[in-house]
Amino acid sequence: MNRVRGRAVGFALLLCLQGVAHADPGKDPVTSVMWGYYQQKFLKDQPYVFDDKVRLRAPPFAEDARQVPVEIDARAYAGEVVRILAWAELNPLPQIVDFQPVERVLPWLSIRIRIEQATPLRAAVLTRDGVWHIGSTTIDAAGGGCTAPSVVRAQPGWEEHIGEVMAGRYPRSGFSRLRVTISHPMDNGMVSGIPEFYLNQAQLKDTHGKLLATLELFPAVSENPTLGFDIEGDGETQLSLRDISGNLFSGAVK
Amino acid sequence: MNRSVAMRLVGCLLFCVSALVHAEPEYHLQPRQIAEDTYVLEGSTENFDKRNGGNIVNTGFIVTDSGVVVIDTGPSRRYGEALRKAIAAVTDKPVIQVLLTHHHPDHVLGNQAFADVPIGALAGTTELMRTQGDALTENLYRMVGDWMRGTEMRLPTQVLAPGTLAIGGHRMRLLALSGHTGADLAIFDETTGVLFAGDIVFYQRALTTPNSPGLQVWLNDLDTLQALPWKRLVPGHGPVATDARPFEQMRDYLGWLDGLLRDGAAQGADMAELIRTPVPERFAAISLTRYELIRSVSHLYPTYERAQMVRVDTR
Predict the structure, then answer these.
(1) Cβ atoms of B93 and B68 closer than 8 Å
(2) For the segment A98-145, what is each residue's pLDDT rounded down to a tens digit?
(3) Residue B71: Cβ-neighbour burial (10 angstroms; 0-12, 13-18, 19+)
(4) What is residue B71's DSSP assignment?
(5) A49, containing H or E segment
(6) Which of A107, B157, B207, B288 has its C-alpha lying 20 to 30 A from A164's C-alpha?
(7) CB contact under 8 A, B314 and A59
(8) HSE of A136, CA atoms in CB hemisphere, 13 A
(9) In a 10 Å sphere around its CB, with 0-12 CB exposed, 13-18 middle and 19+ buried, how is residue B63 labelled?
(10) Burial B139-175 (b: 16+ CB within 10 A, else e)
(11) Contact pairs from chain A to chain B, CB under 8 Å
(12) Distance CA A54, CA A38 (A)
């Protein structure tokens, strides 16, 4: 009797849990053979929905597979976003960025990436209610972006320029666009004889040292990373970066 | 039905299928005379495609008293061979000289069919073919497919310098330009007034920028060409013209593109935003504007955006 009831309760509980975990995510807008794998890997058993309010934009094809512009726009959930993960499903090194806007930074990011072949791209946006909103697109490519020889390393004296930061601030209505580009080879370990060497951490702070956003970068990010942020309010923005060899770089954008 | 009949049927079927599979694609090149001794083979204004075999380019030839001068060899070995046959249908004079306008694959991959003839190009063109040729050839295989079978990059065998080339009663002025690829040859036949502009001029087809040193350089090249006393203009892509409309369209389009990139950089636009910019209505007759805008933003925007940034590192 006890065992039967126990089982019944267990079964009911399981049903409930399944009810939560399997809230209908809707139809995957892109054709993907890898979605299930990455969902398990990055989102675990957390609830998710395919959501066209998360706009993930890239060109329909990669003209330069080493520098593919990607724009992640989750402003439809402004004020609600805790974290944004992005990846390129068919890349040998799929992960692109883990972006956590903390304060005054809108849930919008532009970044350039490398792709190895035609692939679905995903941006998973976690909102405060614990749901991941998945933005999707696909991109066509002749390929080879991840294994192509470095353009940076081909330039004489490139070591002298590591960590140089170029930036601009561009006023928009209600916020300003901050764009930065950092000199760094972003070696992903896939080019023969050159070990991994890439920027993996970045932070944005205000003049008082208050944290505005953090980013973890992965080697799918292009060499000389180019990033764009939309920031509300005034004042200087401090950018600090760190690569996997422990080099620290920083810049201040007025 | 006995077995041998069945076998014969199967054999027949197999034969039909294999005949279909092995149907060779053909270019059907039609030389059109545009001036005395001068012929053009006009390609479409489409993109590279498995349906068109990459015949999206204009090639041409001039039948001089001493032999035939060929301008560009087309996108594949098969095209080069078809071009040679087309020339032979017009004249029994031998081909004695090939001139390549620039290193892009649609203009030079027919070189194999002219292995017995001097193939001339600017030094910069040969260098670009050496460094980029294999990648460009591979990409064309990807886009055009079986038409490319047997095609390999063959380097020029002769270095051309700017100046006058006199062949068989024709005086041809060779102009070394750079706006499209950094090494662009234009050929002005003073004898007939025909200007082979190469890809410095696209007409009714969006221009391409993968190797352009800058749009201002390109605009200057247009001035140089337009100032020549030409009567007929053969663009690298698009219809032959007898008036200045191709030049006007090029200037208008280059000016628009330059302004778009400049304004975008001044406003901190991202590449992914810029490629969605509406293309002005006045360019509606030009094919592939959206496609080429996406490519041009990728090629050119990094230079524009850096010009709007300042060093801020505090290390």
Answers:
(1) yes
(2) 999 999 999 999 999 999 999 999 999 999 999 999 999 999 987 777
(3) buried
(4) E
(5) strand A48-50
(6) A107
(7) no
(8) 20
(9) buried
(10) ebbebbbebbeebebbebeeebeeeebebbebebebb
(11) 90
(12) 18
**Under an 8 A CB cutoff, do B311 and A57 touch?**
no
Q: What percent of chain B has pLDDT over 70?
A: 92
A253 and B312 within 8 Å at the Cβ level: the answer is: yes
pTM, entire model: 0.87
Give chain A's domains with CATH numbers.
34-253 (2.60.40.10)
Q: Residue A233: CB partners within 8 Å, gap ≥ 6?
A: A104
Residues B315 and B300: their CA atoms lie apart, in Å, by 30
Query: Per mean pLDDT, which range of B49-53, B68-72, B294-298 is the poorest?
Result: B49-53
Residue B10 is predicted with a pLDDT of 60
> What pLDDT digit, counting tens, does each position of B173-229 carry?
999 999 999 999 999 999 999 999 999 999 999 999 999 999 999 999 999 999 999
Token reading at A138: 């696909």
Inter-chain touch B314–A252, beta carbons under 8 Å: yes
Report ipTM (2 d.p.): 0.86
Q: List domains and CATH numbers for chain B.
A: 23-243 (3.60.15.10)
User: Is B267 within 8 Å of A70 when comparing Cβ atoms?
Assistant: no
Query: Which contacts qualify for B133-136: CB closer than 8 Å, 24 or more apart?
Result: B133/B103, B133/B105, B136/B103, B136/B104, B136/B105
> Which residues fall within 8 angstroms of residue B29, CB to CB, at 6 or more apart?
B41, B55, B79, B82, B83, B85, B86
> What's the mean pLDDT when you consider all of chain A?
90
The answer to whether residues A97 and A200 touch, using CB atoms and an 8 Å cutoff, is no
Per CB-CB distance under 8 Å, the chain A contacts of B294 are 59-61, 63
**Shortest distance, CA B88 to any CA of chain A (angstroms):** 37
C-alpha distance from residue A55 to each of A91, A123, A125, B84, B91 (Å): 21, 8, 10, 52, 60
Residue B47: HSE in the Cβ half-sphere, 13 Å Cα cutoff = 11
Mean model confidence pLDDT for chain B: 93
A70: nearest CA in chain B? B272
Q: Judge: A164–B295 Cβ closer than 8 Å, yes or no.
A: no
Residue of A67, A164, A169 lying closest to B298 (CB–CB):
A67
What's the N-to-C CA distance of chain B in angstroms? 89
d(CA B162, CA B170): 16
Spatial distance between the Cα atoms of A184 and A225, rounded to a whole number of angstroms: 7
**A69 inside 8 A of chain B by CB:** yes
Closest CA to B154 of B76, B219, B92, B238: B76
Touching check for A63 and chain B: CB below 8 Å?
Answer: yes
